[in-house]
Amino acid sequence: MTDETKIKLFQNQKVRLKWDDKIEDYYFSVVDVVGILSESKNPNNYWKVLKKRLKDEGVELVTICNQLKLPSHKDGKMYKTDVATAKQLFRIIQSIPSPNAEPFKQWLAKVGSERLDEIADPEMAIERAVATYREKGYSEEWITQRLRGIEIRKDLTSEWNRSGVEKGREYAILTNEISRASFGITTGEHKKIKGLKKENLRDNMTNAELVINMLGELATTEISKTENPQGFEESKIVARDGGSIAGNALRELE
């Protein structure tokens, strides 16, 4: 079994999963999770019935389910298996009438309520983020740097939006341009060096890395405001220039 295809324990039972580099997320075997939560003796049949129930509820299965080859629990051979991301699984779980699924439903309701609170009062999101970082053991200095980095990132994306850069793929490419000029590597390569997959790269940066990262994004924002690039290609040049300023600072620091 490769590093990308693994089996994890959930409530002391096995769940197959596979990492997908393209979407940078894990796919979980739906029948494994459904079987555990429903406690069905025939999870394959239960999932078949649940598929129909989801369809009757107006859910398009193509939006919440894919197929990948995963090793069978019985003979270890690879077979096509219905899989879903954690987000997609949460939608499936909502349609499982089982006491085992109820804690997940309650948690989703709690998260949804908190999200509505944060929309009404954005400061609550910041307070929750700080509390979470403290619970994870981050220092106050690191937390201050991280929050400052979030603010600088928002300023940068606002500037990209003004310049006509499209969210998603183009944002990611420009971020990689800054990273390559700052650290000599892309964000993906940076995550591999740190052994990260789903985890947030910035949450795993040192204080020095955060400062260099912030400098690259701050410099890019200021240059963009001065040069007023139009569209993605011109913004890419600005991203390289901004990242180069941070790269020079890193070399001086080293």
Structural description of this entry:
With 254 residues, the chain is of the alpha+beta class. The protein has two domains: 5-116; 121-253, no CATH class. The chain contains eleven helices and five strands; from the N terminus they run βββαααββαααααααα. The chain has helices spanning 30-38, 43-56, 61-64, 86-93, 102-120, 123-135, 140-162, 169-183, 187-193, 207-227, 231-253, and strands at 5-10, 13-20, 25-29, 66-71, 78-84. Strands 1-2-3-5-4 form a five-stranded antiparallel sheet. Helix 1 (30-38) packs across helix 2 and helix 7 runs parallel beside helix 10. The longest helix has 23 residues, at 140-162. The two termini are 40 Å apart. The mean pLDDT is 91.
Task: Give the tags.
2 domains; 5 strands; five-stranded antiparallel beta sheet; elongated; alpha+beta; 61% helix; 254 residues; 11 helices
Quick recap of the structure?
This protein is α+β, with helices and mostly antiparallel strands and 254 residues long. Helices cover 61% and strands 13% of the residues.
Any chance you could write out the topology, listing elements then pairs?
Layout: E1 5-10, E2 13-20, E3 25-29, H1 30-38, H2 43-56, H3 61-64, E4 66-71, E5 78-84, H4 86-93, H5 102-120, H6 123-135, H7 140-162, H8 169-183, H9 187-193, H10 207-227, H11 231-253
Determine the fraction of residues in helical runs and give it as a percent range: 55-70%
Order of helices and strands: EEEHHHEEHHHHHHHH
Shape: elongated
For the largest sheet, list the strands in their spatial order: 1-2-3-5-4
Cα distance spanning the termini: 40 Å
Query: Main β-sheet, in a few words?
Result: 5 strands, antiparallel
Q: How many domains is the backbone divided into?
A: 2
Q: Number of helical runs?
A: 11
Number of strands: 5
Unreliable stretches: none
Structural class designation: alpha+beta
Q: What gyration radius follows from the Cα positions, in whole Å?
A: 22 Å
Determine the mean pLDDT.
91
**Proportion of residues in β-strands:** 5-15%
